[in-house]
């Protein structure tokens, strides 16, 4: 099915199931520990061998010698896989460095060996017996030092254009009545999901099956085949339950490749989980940025010039963090420029983490907007509203499909009690705490990807949905079931959803907040086909047939749905594809984030007191799972603002705090009270469900809202994330 | 983790004797620190002596009005003991500021005192570290040092002792009671229990090889206000950037000990005589001679401001 014009009324609009705050259908499996994650497939392989990954201990250079003999002789050891004995391995398209390194080393903790043994403990002990000598070479590990050498990267689908110019930015900025020119920095961040990357691999002849934890089944199936040099049809990848990904599991990673190689070498199934201390340096991370924002405005608050430049680093051949993307679309302004520059760094490879681009980009832009509002003497909410745009400011012929941005801000201000904010910072106290309110805009584009599904009706009236879509803890199972239930007119209990298997129709997968809207649209398309099949089978005119309460009704005739499958299951498969609708119109999601913080006047510790997000993301398919997504993302945004940072050792070239003691993410005590409001909205230009993504919107802007609240509390502006106490301590007011 | 042998001891003397028997043997109590270190092969004991069955899990009153805390009393039980809560609030508060509920259920008094540093380079066995591997160098110096020590450091090591409980015990003038392999017992004042790194950062305490901690003794209660302020980047479940434990008397005198600044809980009795003159005066003396790095110099200001705030709270 092709979607290329506005959605009209369809069975989804009945909202009997869609739009209801239903519990997640996989919830009981998760809470009882019965959902089998990749490392726990005892049901499939009772007695696998275990792999332990060895990471390189230099950042750049070569392996000069490797002595495996002691490890190979150790108790229980079945095989030691290295680049020397693994056969020819190619590199996939989505990873920058090789997933099994050697003799060249491209980054710290790049995998260089897998020790396979009968037990986990044996594999781990033997791994310590492998002796590797390296010759280290000097590398570039410091973004600030490398900034001058940064160049314009090659544009790609992921980056969009590298530089944009509209009007005459330099002149308009120079002539603006009020100007702001500030530089902001965001650090490298780790996804820090609970479940490590994990895979169980099993060969049957030359066919490989991997049970893994991966967000993008089709991508990674292809990448695994490419890497191993085997035909894609020989690879089956199964990823039904994922303990968090946040972008870290979008791609094929070392666990999958090494499990496959280990299983081949050992001649039996092997499972591998990346050890936690390896994850920060072995896998991808969100790259650090240096961002310069320039704003010029008239005294009445009209922006006349808006410029945003971003510098980030990556391994040779990698890509930039697209931190300027939102600045092209969020605010009006006749004269504009954006640009991205990329420096070569020999740190581990950067890649997508929840809302790549917008998350760090808004952390900079939305502090700048707060600073500019203060310079202008205008309320920050009003300043943003004054510069709203209903069209793409770089391409005014492209309207937004829907843009209730102003409503988000106004409703948020009202619900939060924004009028109680004192515009003069550092004024409000509660005992020893300095209190501040801050806000920021949230913005994330709505990305759509073609997505397929297969639906089956059996003679009990059960509808089964099969798609390679994944559920990374987001609620995909549930919203897909809701879509099928609504379309086929059956209760939720009559729907079965099976996900994450590469033998199923290819879906959009989970990433870029495209999963919910895209995958449900694919299920919609398949259900439309199944409805036609049912009608044909029952000799009804499908255009008139109403599917409701387990029945198919035309006029005053009604037939049980399962009657259509009396002679055998009815199966329909289709996918949703998109015309140029997204080119003609800009589809985005919007939020207003509001935060209250308390800063300890003595120690400078910042603690959040309450948070509110008002979100507009089209139709909300399930308010409960959508809310969970948003509060989780707000929590991650709070972490970005207050504590998350991979500490770079710029001499040795690695992220030092590579475990969950060193890399702090928020705990419950950091997140006392969160409220989420969704605007009652539909976007008919998005999909037939009129829904958009919401899983990343929740993080976008939060960091800046926290930063602005801290400034409002203290009067000290910190432009270098995370805002830890050491960055404002010596500028805080004296302890009374 | 290296393969190891394991035994359960039944008396303190037997445990100490057993430890002297096998070179590199370790006692295991809650295991919350030791097992993590063994999994990463930062520690590789060939033999473990389980001390959980020694009957050292009671808290008793001493003759001179103090408390004797068994080495195996869990952090949870110690923090919840009514006598501790009433008379040694500093200790209860420091304990509850540490780790998480689950960990405190397992963690023991002796194990907590002997927990090892959280220097991130100590945890990465690919990096040189004089504490982990004597003579290999110190990767932290010149590297990422934000969490590390500012005073009493050496050119060999700038790590800190991460315990909250130990800060309180130091301020309260506790003593550590032990038994050695030959059955001899002794008492070690907290002031002498932990060592500065010097040239031998791997030697962290005054304990001899195989010496078993049997109890920790608190002298009779001090009265006063007991305040423990742990400063950290997140609100819970994080090691201190700095912590300040203070016992303050109505007449303006008091005691103060610091965590997160040195290789041991940091206290200076002389500096305490400055207490009536305020935090600035106290910290000026207490941290005189500090050698912070560029990344952790903020700890000096932080200690001073935190103590100042505590003094305000104590008056209120
Ligand atoms: C995630 C995490 C967070 C933490 N956060 C904090 C925190 O915020 N603040 C804090 O203070 N601590 C914190 N801790 C550390 C925790 O307090 C210690 O792990 C715990 O106190 C150790 O006690 P244990 O009984 O488990 O010791 P074990 O791990 O059993 O032993 C530790 C050491 O003590 C030795 N030992 C044990 N008993 C004796 C004895 N009777 N005589 C002689 N030697 C003995 C062992 O041989 C070993 O060397 C944290 C730990 C973790 C894992
Ligand atoms: S500071 Fe001490 S613990 Fe840390 S690396 Fe140096 S020697 Fe090792």
TrEMBL record, chain A:
InterPro entries: Ald_Oxase/Xan_DH_a/b, Ald_Oxase/Xan_DH_a/b_sf, Ald_Oxase/xanthine_DH-like, AldOxase/xan_DH_MoCoBD1, AldOxase/xan_DH_MoCoBD2, AldOxase/xan_DH_Mopterin-bd_sf, PaoC-like. Keywords: Oxidoreductase. Residues 32-138 form the Aldehyde oxidase/xanthine dehydrogenase a/b hammerhead domain. Transmembrane segments: none annotated. Its EC number is 1.17.1.4. SMART domains: Ald_Xan_dh_C (SM01008). This is Xanthine dehydrogenase YagR molybdenum-binding subunit.
From TrEMBL, chain B:
InterPro entries: CO_DH_flav_C (IPR005107), CO_DH_flav_C_dom_sf (IPR036683), Diverse_Substr_Oxidored (IPR051312), FAD-bd_PCMH (IPR016166), FAD-bd_PCMH-like_sf (IPR036318), FAD-bd_PCMH_sub1 (IPR016167), FAD-bd_PCMH_sub2 (IPR016169), Mopterin_DH_FAD-bd (IPR002346). Its EC number is 1.17.1.4. It holds the Pfam family FAD_binding_5. The keyword Metal-binding does not apply. Residues 1-223 form the FAD-binding PCMH-type domain. Gene3D superfamilies: 3.30.465.10, CO dehydrogenase flavoprotein, C-terminal domain, Uridine Diphospho-n-acetylenolpyruvylglucosamine Reductase, domain 2. It comes from the Bacteria. This is Xanthine dehydrogenase YagS FAD-binding subunit. One of its GO terms (molecular function) is xanthine dehydrogenase activity. It comes from Ancylobacter vacuolatus. Keywords: FAD, Flavoprotein, Oxidoreductase. It is an enzyme of class 1 (oxidoreductase).
